[in-house]
Amino acid sequence: MRRARPGAPPRGTAGRALTSVGAGADFDGGGSADPEEGRPAGPGPGPTAVGRPAPETARTERTPSKLWHITLSVSGGAVPLEEVRRGLEQLAHDHPFLLTSRYADDHAEIRYWEEARDLHDAAAVALRLWGEHRSTARLPPWEIVGLEVIDRETYHQRVAEGYGPPPAAPVGVHPY
Length: 176
What we know:
Blueprint: E1 33-34, E2 39-40, E3 66-75, H1 81-94, E4 98-103, E5 107-116, H2 119-133, E6 143-151, H3 152-161, E7 172-175
Parallel strand pairs: 4-7
Antiparallel strand pairs: 1-2, 3-5, 3-6, 4-5
């Protein structure tokens, strides 16, 4: 359990800029935008503290967030296995949504779920993950050599049909 001030960033994260799309009321259809009104569903303008109706807010279009399964593959020159493992464990600590990492001395594969509006947003965050954590997690100077981004339905369909990536179990950092 991490002890810190509420809202304080985890130690060692002050210089990082990696962000994920936060879960909102529109996640996966829960509290999604009302298509007729063009604003978030739920309680609309109601009475204010003095009994007058609240002013109408600006109409906004919202795209519901979705979960995307990310598989990021990296590769490069050989590095001692202990250093690779330590770096991936630090990455998992810094980015708690990582499900599993597999590694060898010259390549690794990282799997996790990302919440984003669309594939482009999920892929953009995934492509920044390795580079933005390279120095803080002391990751090897490897390059991204592969990226797969699939939606949750496709992931579960592949697993059910037996030809997709196996479920990410056991969770954690493991050698190939």
